Amino acid sequence: MSQPKRILLLDTGHEWGGGTNSMFELLKRLDRQRFAVTCCFYKDYRKGKDGRLLSEELADIDIPLIVLPSRPQPLWAKIAKELARGLLTWSARLKKRAVRRIDHQWRILPRAREIRQVLADGGFELLYMNNQPSSNLEGYLAAEALGLPMVQHCRVEPTLHGDEVEVVNRLATRIICVSQGVADVLAAQHVAENRLQVVYNAIDARTPLPPKAELPPFGNRPVIGTVGRLMPIKAVAHLIEAVHRLKGEGLAPACVIVGEGGQRAELVALAERLGVSELVHFAGFQRVPLAWVEAMDICVLCSSREGLPRVVLEAMLASKPVVGSDVTGTRELVVNEDTGLLYAYGDIPALVGALRRLLADPLLRRAMGDSGRRRVVEHYSIEAYVAGVSRVLAEALS
C-alpha cells in the first residue's frame, strides 16, 4: 500500500469562525490512508473567549499543529507607511498600493520563507490553504519556491488586486469555491475559470439536534436571532434597528445575538440607545450555536457578503425559516418564498417587512422551516463536501 500524501494546511486566521468549523468537519472525515494532514497556523487561538484551544481540538482528531509565532511590525515599516500616507494623500489608489508593498516586504516575504522551510523540513507534497487568496499570498510564494502544487479553499467572497490575480493564475493548481457565487466573483475579477471548482459547504444532517438553549425569560414573545462574529460585515446593527422598528409597531419580538467580536460594545450601546436592551440578549460565543438556533423562531443574517454561511445551513437543518440579505452565498441557500425570505442588503424597511410577515404567520414559518430542512438534506450533504474536496486534493497531487 502506498504511503499517504503529506499535506500542509495553512490557515492565517486569528480567531475561530464558520470557516474553522467547516475545516474541522473536513479533517474529521478525510481518508487518513490517502492524506496525512498537518496544520500550520499563526496563532493557537481559542474556540470562543473561554473555549478550548485550537491545538486541543486538533489533538482530539489526531492532527498535528505547527504554530508560527506572530512577528511585530518593525519600526521602519511603520515609518514608511506614515510617509506613504502623507505623501500620497492626493491618490487613494497609490496610497493603498504603497502600503501593500511595504506589507509585502516586512510581512509576506519573511512569512513565505518560514512556510517554505516548514514545507521542506516536513517533506510535504502539497500546500492546502484555508482562507482566500489575499490572506494566503505568503503560502503561494513558499510553495512556488519548492515547485509544490497548491490548493486554495476560498470560503468568503473575496476582493483581489490585479497583482494578486496574477499570482493566483500563475500558481494555484485549483481554487475550491464554497459556492457558485464565490466562483462567479473570482471569475469576474479575471481569475482563470479552469482553476475554479465549486464544492459546497455542508452539514451533517444525521447528527442529532441538540436540546434547545435556555433563553432569558422573554415571556411568550417570538424569538428572532442571528449567529456570527460581531463585526461590521455581519451588519448586526441592522437587526437591532429592525427590532426597534418592530417594537414601535407593537410587535416587540425577543432577539438573541450569538457571537463575540470587536463590535460588541458598540452594538450593546445601540440597543440601549434605541430602547430595546430589554428585548436584545447578547449570548456571546457558544460552543454549540445550533442549540441557540433551535431556540429561535426565525434566523436572520444581515451580512454585506458571505461565502456560504454555515449558520444558514444550521438554521435549515433545525427547520427554521431564514430571513437573509440577498448576497453571494446566502442567496444560494435561501430559496425566496420557499425556505425563507430575501431582502436587499441594507434595506432595513424590507428587513422589517420580512420579519413582520413571518412573525404574524406561524404556519408560514413552519412550512418554510420544513422546506429548508428538506433542501439541506438533499443538496448539502457532508459526504458530498468531503468527497469533493478529496477529489480536488487527489487531482492536484497526481
Describe this structure in words.
The protein is 44% helix and 16% strand. It contains 15 helices and 13 strands. The chain has helices at 18-27, 54-60, 75-87, 92-122, 137-146, 162-171, 180-188, 236-248, 264-273, 289-294, 310-317, 330-333, 348-359, 362-379, 382-397; strands spanning 5-11, 35-41, 65-67, 126-131, 150-154, 174-177, 196-198, 223-227, 254-258, 280-284, 298-301, 322-325, 340-343. The longest helix has 31 residues, at 92-122.
Summarize the topology.
Elements: E1 5-11, H1 18-27, E2 35-41, H2 54-60, E3 65-67, H3 75-87, H4 92-122, E4 126-131, H5 137-146, E5 150-154, H6 162-171, E6 174-177, H7 180-188, E7 196-198, E8 223-227, H8 236-248, E9 254-258, H9 264-273, E10 280-284, H10 289-294, E11 298-301, H11 310-317, E12 322-325, H12 330-333, E13 340-343, H13 348-359, H14 362-379, H15 382-397
